[in-house]
């Protein structure tokens, strides 16, 4: 007796273009422009910090750029989250342009990794790991302070009744 083959389950026919059902990304040129502008500014500031000479295994310029980015990004995020006076469109543009663009261009985790790796490979493992740990700890402290300051600034602006401007510059 010949073994019987199991029945083939019925499957729906495959779509001729498997990507046709996927939604295309919504590319908004206004957001792209503010991220680009912010990134250009952040990268220029970071370049200025690269001119600061290192202090042993501690690359002062990279450390300062990364800590400033942590402080500013956390402060901006907290301020925008706590501020009822800024509309959602303004928050989106500020978050993308100043946060993602400028702070993203300012911070440089790849340079940090390269500097730590270089220190370790050159026989200064303790200094490289210490630099990495100090950057991480100081970054957390800077972000914590930035979040605190951003929340306080938003609350103060709300209490004092600071009037935001409409498009065109007139007061609301």
Automatic annotation (TrEMBL):
<keyword id="KW-0406">Ion transport</keyword>
<keyword id="KW-0812">Transmembrane</keyword>
<feature type="compositionally biased region" description="Pro residues">
    <location>
        <begin position="1"/>
        <end position="16"/>
    </location>
</feature>
<feature type="region of interest" description="Disordered">
    <location>
        <begin position="1"/>
        <end position="22"/>
    </location>
</feature>
<feature type="transmembrane region" description="Helical">
    <location>
        <begin position="61"/>
        <end position="81"/>
    </location>
</feature>
<feature type="binding site">
    <location>
        <position position="107"/>
    </location>
    <ligand>
        <name>Na(+)</name>
    </ligand>
</feature>
<keyword id="KW-1003">Cell membrane</keyword>
<dbReference type="GO" id="GO:0005886">
    <property type="term" value="C:plasma membrane"/>
</dbReference>
<dbReference type="Pfam" id="PF02537">
    <property type="entry name" value="CRCB"/>
</dbReference>
<comment type="similarity">
    <text>Belongs to the fluoride channel Fluc/FEX (TC 1.A.43) family.</text>
</comment>
<dbReference type="GO" id="GO:0046872">
    <property type="term" value="F:metal ion binding"/>
</dbReference>
<dbReference type="GO" id="GO:0140114">
    <property type="term" value="P:cellular detoxification of fluoride"/>
</dbReference>
<dbReference type="GO" id="GO:0062054">
    <property type="term" value="F:fluoride channel activity"/>
</dbReference>
<dbReference type="InterPro" id="IPR003691">
    <property type="entry name" value="FluC"/>
</dbReference>
<protein>
    <recommendedName>
        <fullName>Fluoride-specific ion channel FluC</fullName>
    </recommendedName>
</protein>
<feature type="binding site">
    <location>
        <position position="104"/>
    </location>
    <ligand>
        <name>Na(+)</name>
    </ligand>
</feature>
<keyword id="KW-0407">Ion channel</keyword>
<keyword id="KW-0915">Sodium</keyword>
<keyword id="KW-0479">Metal-binding</keyword>
<keyword id="KW-0472">Membrane</keyword>
<feature type="transmembrane region" description="Helical">
    <location>
        <begin position="31"/>
        <end position="49"/>
    </location>
</feature>
<keyword id="KW-0813">Transport</keyword>
<feature type="transmembrane region" description="Helical">
    <location>
        <begin position="126"/>
        <end position="149"/>
    </location>
</feature>
<comment type="function">
    <text>Fluoride-specific ion channel. Important for reducing fluoride concentration in the cell, thus reducing its toxicity.</text>
</comment>
<feature type="transmembrane region" description="Helical">
    <location>
        <begin position="93"/>
        <end position="114"/>
    </location>
</feature>
<keyword id="KW-1133">Transmembrane helix</keyword>
């Amino acid at each position: 007796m010949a073994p019987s083959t199991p029945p083939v389950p019925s499957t729906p026919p495959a779509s001729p273009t498997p990507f046709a059902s996927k939604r295309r990304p919504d590319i908004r040129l206004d957001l792209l422009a503010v991220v680009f502008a912010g990134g250009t500014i952040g990268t220029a500031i970071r370049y200025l910090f690269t001119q600061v000479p290192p202090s042993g295994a501690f690359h002062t310029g990279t450390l300062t750029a990364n800590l400033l980015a942590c402080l500013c990004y956390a402060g901006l995020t907290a301020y925008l989250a706590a501020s009822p006076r800024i509309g959602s469109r303004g928050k989106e543009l500020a978050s993308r342009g100043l946060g993602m663009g400028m702070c993203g261009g300012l911070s440089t985790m790849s340079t940090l990794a390269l500097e730590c790796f270089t220190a370790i490979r050159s026989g200064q493992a303790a200094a490289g790991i210490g630099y990495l740990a100090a950057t991480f700890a100081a970054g957390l402290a800077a972000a914590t302070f930035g979040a605190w300051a951003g929340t306080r600034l938003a609350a103060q602006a709300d209490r004092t009744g600071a009037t935001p401007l409409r498009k065109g510059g007139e007061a609301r």
